[in-house]
């Protein structure tokens, strides 16, 4: 995680944005803005944020966005809390938890609970496997087969069909005529790995890249990385997480995806490299993974708050 | 999941506390949980009329308390916990309300102007993000910003529309831009 951009630089960037949108910026001022943003890497970073903001706003069709963003009613917190009763009454029958609903918006058609792996077959014969806490919408029409990845991680085996098969996520689209591939959507980027066949990975605002069997890549909204060799991206489909000298903090972050709550490790352990094939899936699998860690490495697993909080601490050795 | 992942990463990265401070925090959160979790669950169950929701929100509340790492600074535990729980509920309600407003607006568009399915989804995601960014702004500031950015209005026109001075509009725009920039990573 990089250091935050200093407040005064963000302030200056905001000033430039105000001027930029006043509709009256002379050439001399534009040049001054250019000079401003080339002053340092931090200035450049601040401007990169400004550009990302402008990109985001630019993708919103005004006719659609204005009525939605300018609506007033929900802004009163008190009014919303008054509606708590209504909120509960409107909940769907198979409720899988506020944590998930909070992130997704609640109209995703197919979802998996935390720690659940779910297999689906779509109308055209394609198969989709959802990993923990994932959600998709399926939108097949006469002209295309579209799957929307609302959250999480999926394995797709697209069937042969005259219609193109596309998986759309927060950062871009994957087009996959007859292929087996996995997609994982995180906050800032999406990872795509191909098992069989080939897919086209197209970020929201950048050129596409072709990905072939055995390759994987990352994409954000405006960039896609060069294809690299696929690692253990698909181990989860067999209920495993493969670690090869992975920092413990990273491993616990991964394990935490499969359970509700927090997995902490103390500072001394965070960078410790661990390797192994760890079971993932439901609570029992994560339990086994934690036991494996405790028996292989110098750490103890502490469960607190009824299991909501798991803390890995350096094992205290006896006095020498 | 993005939130939860970020929460966990933040926890892991903040994990440089001295051992004794960490122990104290553990004990505090533990005490908070044993003394108040049951009470919080009961309170939520009464409010929501559903035990499953209540259990989930109660859990989410404690996950947030853990993440905030400020448990030892809490003076009024029950007031604090209910505030966090309400924040979770309000946030969910907001997202649902935005999605409903979006779907309604979509139905009112003429077919020719309707975005493709895929675009609809991407737009919704962006709307949620932008809405979250602008949430904390006072109403006139937000309105001015949206009139400028979505409807392309000039500052003079906005000043007229909102019945304020041009300087005020520029002040609003600065506040909104600053908020958005601070929000971006």
Radius of gyration of chain B: 21 Å
- Work out the radius of gyration of chain A: 23 Å
> Could you list the spans of chain A in which at least 5 consecutive residues all have pLDDT below 50?
85-107
| Helix-and-strand structural type of chain B | mainly alpha
Describe this entry's structure for a reader.
The complex is a heterodimer of chains A (320) and B (185). Helix content of chain A is 30%, strand content 32%. Chain A is an alpha+beta fold. In chain A, strands 1, 2, 3, 4, 5, 6, 7, 8, 9, 10, 11, 12, 13 and 14 form a 14-stranded mixed sheet that branches. A three-stranded mixed sheet of chain A has the order 16-19-18. In chain A, strand 8 and strand 9 (190-196) form a beta hairpin. The longest helix of chain A is centred in the N-terminal third of the chain and has 18 residues, at 41-58. Mean pLDDT of chain A is 84; it is low at 85-107. Chain B is an all-alpha fold and 185 residues long. In chain B, 79% of the residues lie in helices and 0% in strands. The relative contact order of chain B is 0.06. Classes of the chains: A alpha+beta (320), B mainly alpha (185). At the A-B interface, helix 1, helix 3, helix 4, helix 5 and helix 6 of A face helix 1, helix 2, helix 3, helix 4 and helix 5 of B.
Summarize this, please?
With 320 residues, chain A is of the alpha+beta class.
């Amino acid at each position: 995680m990089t250091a935050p951009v200093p407040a005064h630089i963000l302030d200056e960037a905001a000033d430039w944005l105000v001027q930029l949108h006043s509709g009256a910026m002379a050439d001399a001022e534009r040049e001054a803005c250019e000079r401003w943003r080339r002053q340092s890497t931090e200035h450049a970073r601040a401007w990169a944020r400004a550009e990302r903001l402008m990109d985001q706003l630019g993708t919103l069709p005004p006719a659609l966005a204005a009525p939605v963003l300018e609506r007033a009613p929900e802004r009163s917190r008190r009014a919303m809390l008054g509606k708590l009763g209504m909120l509960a009454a409107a909940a769907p029958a198979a409720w899988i938890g506020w944590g998930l609903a909070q992130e997704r918006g609640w109209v995703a058609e197919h979802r998996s609970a935390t720690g659940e792996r779910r297999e689906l077959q779509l109308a055209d014969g394609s198969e989709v496997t959802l990993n923990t806490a994932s959600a998709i919408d399926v939108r097949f029409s006469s002209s295309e087969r579209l799957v929307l990845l609302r959250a999480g991680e999926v394995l797709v085996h697209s069937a042969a069909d005259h219609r193109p098969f596309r998986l759309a996520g927060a950062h871009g689209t994957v087009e996959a005529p007859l292929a087996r591939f996995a997609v994982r959507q995180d906050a800032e980027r999406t990872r795509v790995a191909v098992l069989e066949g080939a897919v086209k990975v197209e970020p929201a605002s950048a050129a596409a890249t072709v990905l072939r069997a055995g390759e994987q890549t990352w994409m954000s909204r405006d960039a896609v990385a060069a294809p690299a060799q696929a690692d253990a991206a698909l181990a989860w489909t067999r209920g495993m997480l493969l670690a090869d000298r992975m920092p413990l903090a990273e491993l616990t972050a991964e394990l935490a995806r499969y359970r509700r709550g927090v997995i902490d490790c103390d500072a001394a352990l965070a960078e410790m490299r661990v390797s192994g094939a760890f079971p993932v899936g439901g609570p029992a699998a994560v339990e086994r993974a934690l036991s494996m860690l405790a028996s292989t490495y110098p750490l103890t697993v502490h469960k607190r708050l009824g299991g909501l909080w798991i803390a890995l601490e350096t094992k205290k050795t006896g006095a020498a | 999941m993005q939130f939860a992942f970020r929460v966990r990463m933040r926890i892991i990265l903040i994990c440089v506390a001295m051992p004794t401070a960490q122990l104290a925090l553990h004990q505090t959160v533990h005490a908070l949980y044993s003394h108040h979790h049951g009470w919080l669950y009961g309170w939520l169950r009464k409010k929501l009329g559903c035990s499953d929701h209540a259990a989930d929100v109660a859990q989410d509340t404690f996950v947030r308390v853990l993440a905030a790492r400020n448990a030892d600074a809490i003076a009024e535990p029950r007031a604090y916990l209910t505030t966090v729980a309400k924040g979770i509920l309000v946030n969910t309600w907001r997202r649902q309300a935005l999605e409903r407003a979006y779907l309604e607006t979509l139905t009112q568009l003429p077919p020719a102007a309707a975005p493709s399915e895929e675009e609809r989804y991407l737009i919704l995601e962006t709307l949620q993000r932008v809405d979250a960014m602008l949430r904390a702004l006072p109403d006139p500031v937000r309105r001015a910003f949206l009139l400028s950015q979505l409807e392309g209005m000039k500052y003079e026109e906005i000043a007229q529309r909102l019945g304020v001075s041009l300087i005020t509009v520029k002040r609003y725009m600065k506040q909104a831009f600053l908020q958005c920039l601070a929000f971006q990573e």
